[in-house]
Amino acid sequence: xxxxxxxxxxxxxxxxxxxxxxxxxxxxxxxxxxxxxxxxxxxxxxxxxxxxxxxxxxxxxxxxxxxxxxxxxxxxxxxxxxxxxxxxxxxxxxxxxxxxxxxxxxxxxxxxxxxxxxxxxxxxxxxxxxxxxxxxxxxxxxxxxxxxxxxxxxxxxxxxxxxxxxxxxxxxxxxxxxxxxxxxxxxxxxxxxxxxxxxxxxxxxxxxxxxxxxxxxxxxxxxxxxxxxxxxxxxxxxxxxxxxxxxxxxxxxxxxxxxxxxxxxxxxxxxxxxxxxxxxxxxxxxxxxxxxxxxxxxxxxxxxxxxxxxxxxxxxxxxxxxxxxxxxxxxxxxxxxxxxxx
Amino acid sequence: xxxxxxxxxxxxxxxxxxxxxxxxxxxxxxxxxxxxxxxxxxxxxxxxxxxxxxxxxxxxxxxxxxxxxxxxxxxxxxxxxxxxxxxxxxxxxxxxxxxxxxxxxxxxxxxxxxxxxxxxxxxxxxxxxxxxxxxxxxxxxxxxxxxxxxxxxxxxxxxxxxxxxxxxxxxxxxxxxxxxxxxxxxxxxxxxxxxxxxxxxxxxxxxxxxxxxxxxxxxxxxxxxxxxxxxxxxxxxxxxxxxxxxxxxxxxxxxxxxxxxxxxxxxxxxxxxxxxxxxxxxxxxxxxxxxxxxxxxxxxxxxxxxxxxxxxxxxxxxxxxxxxxxxxxxxxxxxxxxxxxxxxxxxxxxxxxxxxxxxxxxxxxxxxxxxxxxxxxxxxxxxxxxxxxxxxxxxxxxxxxxxxxxxxxxxxxxxxxxxxxxxxxxxxxxxxxxxxxxxxxxxxxxxxxxxxxxxxxxxxxxxxxxxxxxxxxxxxxxxxxxxxxxxxxxxxxxxxxxxxxxxxxxxxxxxxxxxxxxxxxxxxxxxxxxxxxxxxxxxxxxxxxxxx
Lengths: 342, 548
What we know:
Structural class of chain A: alpha+beta
Shape of chain B: globular
Distance between the termini of chain B: 28 Å
Strand content of chain B: under 5%
CATH architecture of chain B: Up-down Bundle
Oligomer: heterodimer
Number of strands of chain A: 12
Mean pLDDT of chain A: 85
């Protein structure tokens, strides 16, 4: 199956290298066995074979040479693996929630899609994922990528789709009855088609059925903002995240935070999630440990929507456009920010 | 080295009046309360054979279902339980005990020149514990089975599964103690009960591999026990250990589980490698090339095997640095296995090779184990493992080792020692035919799975994308052939018990010490404690006088 991502070529090359190496070794061994078994088959019963104890030089050779080859293969694969774990800073971030037995993905504009993932071709995409229940795994065979999706924490993976197309998405960690039905499609669209899809308009791509379901207009900025209000975050953190009894949220995302215990941490997705579910874990310096926990009151989806909202709070303290989000943010930002409903 | 003249009587069959371990007492009580390691080996043979039939039935259901992409034979829950019970029964009730408890129990003391193992009562207790644990697992099966895979990952297994996880986990917990006690017994036996003159480097390679296996059994199995216990505690009492909803860490489970389960795969394969060493030596009439390297490679595999568990977790959320360390070590653990394959091949050089059934299985092992081991390289390599993890590639890899390797070694050993165990010869032509059918059926079953796995078909899938069907059809076709290959020995081995040709003392002309006893042996094995003056497999030093 042809690969369709930036990693596919490297992984397939490594795969074929190991295949050729294995074939050489296997065929070598098989030929020797067949040759020896034929040449040295028992011809008469009195024959006493010579006692060959061994050959230390040969032993050393067939220990050292495979070891060198093995370590070289390890190193090659490790380099690619490290690359696969270092998403570019300007990667487009898409949030994914897996739950029995479906996938939900949140585009940067805030719209959610079910069992589908639309991505632009040629731009790195980073998936930040969590599970609502058991361990799942986000697997796109054509991209040669997969990553377990775990409840209680975020895991990430990234790729750059290189060819427009529709690709299989499978759950690859057993998760219960309908594990084999927790499947979907990844739609890799040209940048133009992707933006068009995000804004919900019809393009030639979507009318040809390429784009799957259209993106909904519901913006998680409003959804996130609604949660921000209804959960009472505004009372401590301010209407627009300007801060009050609670720390300032505007401009927080991605910045360094000093904690009361002297440590400095980066306010990433996991930090925000933890602050909502277990606020006592990290106290910001200069603030009181009085934030209540929202464990049980918010789903993973809610948390992601809140994160999107907090990301959208620029330095100015007002709800701006995506200043702190990952780059390549399409222009289709809902102008209805701040209004509830559509 | 001095030439030893040994009288070998190929033709003399056992006499009816000879008392051996089988006919000394026919009562059921004498069997159920036996302290004779040979009878205990037979008890295990019966038990694990029954378990194998169950596990194969589950496999049959799986392969039938997978003929079509839709889930039409079984509903999703039934399928999920089928593959889970297949894995659990095959791993814990068949593969892990098989060679050590059947062939090891039977042959180890005789290879040491001893009358029995160090702790015969403990040996019997091991069997009863095995049966007790197996009954718990069967109870779980009859109640409807467990799902979650044999790997039991939480929080699914502890918090979400609706199946009978607890009795099955409890059964595995119990069976683990059988494994630990057998390992303990073998270690002490090997240390303390060798005949005079039998130094460590004169031990047959089967003993070395059983010893290495026993080390792993004793050290690793307790980790499985505690892990399963904690799963049960979380599931029953709601104590949060692994489930994030209860404040636990699911990755902790994976570390603990694989810390046992990776060494477990070496528990499964090392005894098979030991059998292959014996078979290659006997049927080439040569000592094994590089004996010391092969012996120490067994120990190296046992030790190394404890250091690589994280290669099951490259996409699980483990750190990149941990992944790199485990990957490097996983490549290195392949080296001792490669040493063995090269040494077995070199043993054939200038040998005198005959192709009876045990040898066919041994040669088949070398071929299939080599392929299985090489496909492990793709999985040890971090980048390719990302793509192949949790696909059918992994399923094919471990079946090549477990079935293509371990099963073939077990069948080879069973055929090899069958005369010694039963006093009968199996029908050679049927033996050869079955070996061939197994080899062909096996490859047809599992080779397509490498391809379909690379193409992206995930494992544990009840329904699959239609483009994968052709590979599944090939695989199921192979499975039916493989099934025939496995059923035939059941019939002709049972047949041979009554109608098989009476076996001479040493039908294979083996230099093994276990063949210097009558066939079948008396309860005490040796009438006099032998004194050993040469290394094992010393064919060129044994000038045989064929008598009668």
